[in-house]
Protein backbone atom coordinates (compact mmCIF):
# COMPACT_ATOMS: atom_id res chain seq x y z
CA UNK A 1 0.00 0.00 0.00
CA UNK A 2 1.02 3.53 -0.75
CA UNK A 3 -0.03 6.21 1.70
CA UNK A 4 -1.86 9.17 0.15
CA UNK A 5 0.31 12.19 -0.46
CA UNK A 6 0.03 14.82 2.21
CA UNK A 7 -1.30 18.19 1.18
CA UNK A 8 0.39 21.49 1.95
CA UNK A 9 -1.47 24.77 2.26
CA UNK A 10 -0.42 27.49 -0.16
CA UNK A 11 -1.34 31.15 -0.49
CA UNK A 12 -0.27 33.23 -3.47
CA UNK A 13 -0.60 36.97 -3.99
CA UNK A 14 -1.09 38.08 -7.58
CA UNK A 15 -1.77 41.35 -9.36
CA UNK A 16 -4.42 41.94 -12.01
CA UNK A 17 -4.06 43.77 -15.29
CA UNK A 18 -2.89 47.36 -15.38
CA UNK A 19 -6.00 49.55 -14.88
CA UNK A 20 -4.50 52.62 -16.55
CA UNK A 21 -4.91 51.53 -20.13
CA UNK A 22 -3.11 54.29 -21.99
CA UNK A 23 0.64 54.33 -21.54
CA UNK A 24 0.75 58.12 -21.90
CA UNK A 25 -1.32 58.41 -18.68
CA UNK A 26 1.35 56.37 -16.88
CA UNK A 27 4.62 57.67 -18.35
CA UNK A 28 3.79 61.07 -19.93
CA UNK A 29 5.95 60.57 -23.03
CA UNK A 30 3.94 63.18 -24.97
CA UNK A 31 2.04 66.26 -23.93
CA UNK A 32 -1.08 65.25 -25.88
CA UNK A 33 -3.59 62.53 -25.10
CA UNK A 34 -3.19 62.75 -21.33
CA UNK A 35 -6.45 62.31 -19.38
CA UNK A 36 -5.19 63.70 -16.04
CA UNK A 37 -7.05 66.80 -14.85
CA UNK A 38 -6.70 69.24 -11.96
CA UNK A 39 -8.11 68.05 -8.64
CA UNK A 40 -9.10 71.13 -6.69
CA UNK A 41 -11.67 70.28 -4.01
CA UNK A 42 -11.36 73.64 -2.22
CA UNK A 43 -11.61 76.10 -5.12
CA UNK A 44 -7.97 77.13 -5.37
CA UNK A 45 -5.90 77.73 -8.48
CA UNK A 46 -4.00 74.47 -8.78
CA UNK A 47 -2.67 73.53 -12.22
CA UNK A 48 -1.10 70.58 -13.99
CA UNK A 49 1.14 70.38 -17.04
CA UNK A 50 3.43 67.93 -18.77
CA UNK A 51 7.07 68.75 -18.20
CA UNK A 52 8.07 68.58 -21.87
CA UNK A 53 11.77 68.61 -21.11
CA UNK A 54 13.88 65.51 -20.85
CA UNK A 55 11.95 64.39 -17.77
CA UNK A 56 8.47 63.91 -19.33
CA UNK A 57 6.59 63.98 -16.04
CA UNK A 58 3.23 65.32 -14.90
CA UNK A 59 3.96 68.53 -12.99
CA UNK A 60 1.41 69.58 -10.34
CA UNK A 61 1.38 73.11 -8.94
CA UNK A 62 -0.68 73.79 -5.81
CA UNK A 63 -1.41 77.16 -4.23
CA UNK A 64 -1.37 78.66 -0.79
CA UNK A 65 -5.03 79.69 -1.17
CA UNK A 66 -6.79 76.31 -0.89
CA UNK A 67 -6.54 72.80 0.51
CA UNK A 68 -6.88 69.46 -1.28
CA UNK A 69 -5.17 70.35 -4.54
CA UNK A 70 -3.49 68.01 -6.96
CA UNK A 71 -4.27 65.83 -9.98
CA UNK A 72 -6.81 63.14 -10.80
CA UNK A 73 -7.22 60.46 -13.44
CA UNK A 74 -10.44 58.56 -14.18
CA UNK A 75 -9.82 54.80 -14.05
CA UNK A 76 -11.78 53.40 -16.98
CA UNK A 77 -10.16 50.13 -17.94
CA UNK A 78 -11.74 47.07 -16.40
CA UNK A 79 -10.19 43.64 -16.38
CA UNK A 80 -13.25 41.62 -15.34
CA UNK A 81 -15.82 42.96 -17.84
CA UNK A 82 -17.89 44.78 -15.21
CA UNK A 83 -19.21 48.30 -15.74
CA UNK A 84 -17.40 49.67 -12.70
CA UNK A 85 -13.65 50.04 -12.86
CA UNK A 86 -13.08 50.11 -9.10
CA UNK A 87 -14.97 47.68 -6.86
CA UNK A 88 -15.68 48.43 -3.19
CA UNK A 89 -13.92 46.04 -0.81
CA UNK A 90 -11.14 45.09 -3.21
CA UNK A 91 -7.50 46.04 -2.66
CA UNK A 92 -5.64 48.09 -5.26
CA UNK A 93 -1.87 48.55 -5.46
CA UNK A 94 -1.02 52.07 -6.57
CA UNK A 95 2.57 52.81 -7.46
CA UNK A 96 4.17 56.00 -8.79
CA UNK A 97 7.32 58.07 -8.72
CA UNK A 98 6.90 61.36 -6.85
CA UNK A 99 9.26 64.28 -6.32
CA UNK A 100 8.84 67.69 -4.69
CA UNK A 101 10.51 70.20 -6.97
CA UNK A 102 9.69 73.44 -5.11
CA UNK A 103 7.79 74.84 -2.16
CA UNK A 104 8.57 75.52 1.45
CA UNK A 105 8.74 72.76 4.02
CA UNK A 106 7.81 69.15 3.57
CA UNK A 107 5.16 68.16 1.07
CA UNK A 108 2.67 65.63 2.43
CA UNK A 109 0.87 63.72 -0.32
CA UNK A 110 -2.30 61.60 -0.25
CA UNK A 111 -3.35 59.01 -2.81
CA UNK A 112 -7.05 58.12 -3.02
CA UNK A 113 -8.80 55.46 -5.05
CA UNK A 114 -12.28 54.05 -4.60
CA UNK A 115 -13.13 56.69 -2.00
CA UNK A 116 -10.33 55.51 0.32
CA UNK A 117 -7.00 57.14 1.12
CA UNK A 118 -3.45 55.93 1.53
CA UNK A 119 -3.05 58.38 4.39
CA UNK A 120 -0.51 61.18 4.19
CA UNK A 121 3.16 60.55 3.51
CA UNK A 122 6.04 62.94 2.94
CA UNK A 123 7.81 63.18 -0.40
CA UNK A 124 11.26 64.66 -0.89
CA UNK A 125 13.36 66.50 -3.45
CA UNK A 126 14.59 63.17 -4.78
CA UNK A 127 12.42 61.11 -7.11
CA UNK A 128 11.24 58.03 -5.20
CA UNK A 129 8.79 55.26 -6.11
CA UNK A 130 5.96 55.04 -3.59
CA UNK A 131 3.69 51.97 -3.44
CA UNK A 132 0.43 52.00 -1.50
CA UNK A 133 -2.15 49.22 -1.08
CA UNK A 134 -5.62 50.76 -0.69
CA UNK A 135 -8.90 48.96 0.01
CA UNK A 136 -11.63 50.68 -2.02
CA UNK A 137 -14.54 51.99 0.06
CA UNK A 138 -16.82 52.55 -2.94
CA UNK A 139 -16.92 52.21 -6.72
CA UNK A 140 -15.48 55.66 -7.46
CA UNK A 141 -13.26 55.22 -10.47
CA UNK A 142 -10.82 58.11 -10.01
CA UNK A 143 -7.22 58.10 -8.85
CA UNK A 144 -6.40 61.24 -6.84
CA UNK A 145 -2.90 62.48 -5.95
CA UNK A 146 -2.99 65.63 -3.83
CA UNK A 147 -1.79 67.61 -0.83
CA UNK A 148 -4.19 68.65 1.93
CA UNK A 149 -2.83 71.93 3.26
CA UNK A 150 -2.92 75.42 1.77
CA UNK A 151 0.75 75.64 0.80
CA UNK A 152 2.25 76.33 -2.61
CA UNK A 153 4.13 73.26 -3.83
CA UNK A 154 5.27 71.91 -7.15
CA UNK A 155 5.65 68.16 -7.39
CA UNK A 156 6.00 65.69 -10.24
CA UNK A 157 4.30 62.35 -10.93
CA UNK A 158 5.70 59.63 -13.20
CA UNK A 159 5.52 55.86 -13.88
CA UNK A 160 2.00 55.45 -12.47
CA UNK A 161 0.47 51.99 -12.03
CA UNK A 162 -2.85 50.75 -10.60
CA UNK A 163 -3.48 47.01 -10.28
CA UNK A 164 -5.97 44.97 -8.30
CA UNK A 165 -4.39 42.76 -5.64
CA UNK A 166 -5.71 39.24 -5.34
CA UNK A 167 -4.90 36.13 -3.39
CA UNK A 168 -5.32 32.50 -4.23
CA UNK A 169 -5.40 29.99 -1.45
CA UNK A 170 -5.76 26.24 -1.41
CA UNK A 171 -4.11 22.91 -0.97
CA UNK A 172 -1.39 21.55 -3.18
CA UNK A 173 0.47 18.29 -3.66
CA UNK A 174 3.71 20.23 -4.02
CA UNK A 175 6.24 19.49 -1.34
CA UNK A 176 6.88 22.27 1.10
CA UNK A 177 10.52 23.17 0.82
CA UNK A 178 11.70 24.98 3.92
CA UNK A 179 15.30 25.31 2.78
CA UNK A 180 16.08 26.28 -0.79
CA UNK A 181 19.44 24.83 -1.82
CA UNK A 182 22.03 27.40 -2.81
CA UNK A 183 24.11 25.31 -5.21
CA UNK A 184 26.53 28.16 -5.86
CA UNK A 185 27.35 28.23 -2.14
CA UNK A 186 27.76 24.48 -1.65
In short:
The chain is mainly β. It has one helix and twelve strands.
Describe, in plain words, how this protein is organized in 3D.
The chain has one helix and twelve strands. The chain has 186 residues and is mostly beta strands. A hairpin with a 5-residue loop joins strand 3 (47-51) and strand 4 (57-61). The radius of gyration is 21 Å and the shape is globular. The chain starts with 7 loop residues before the first strand and ends in a 14-residue tail after the last strand. The model is unreliable at 78-82 (pLDDT under 50).
Mean pLDDT equals 82
Gross geometry: globular
How many β-strand runs?
A: 12
Poorly predicted parts: 78-82
Portion of residues within helices: under 10%
The quaternary state of the protein chains shown equals single chain
Largest sheet: 6 strands, antiparallel
Radius of gyration: 21 Å
**Separation, N- and C-terminal Cα atoms:** 37 Å
- N-to-C SSE string, H for helix and E for strand: EHEEEEEEEEEEE
As a percent range, the share of strand residues is over 45%
Structural class computed from helices and strand pairing: mainly beta
Q: What is the overall number of helices?
A: 1
Amino acid sequence: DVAPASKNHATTVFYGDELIGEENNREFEASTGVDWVVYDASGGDASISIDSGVANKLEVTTTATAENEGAQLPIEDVGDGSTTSIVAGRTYRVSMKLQQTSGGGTCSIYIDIGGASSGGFTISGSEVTYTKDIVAANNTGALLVYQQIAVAYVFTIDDVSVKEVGTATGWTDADQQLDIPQTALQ
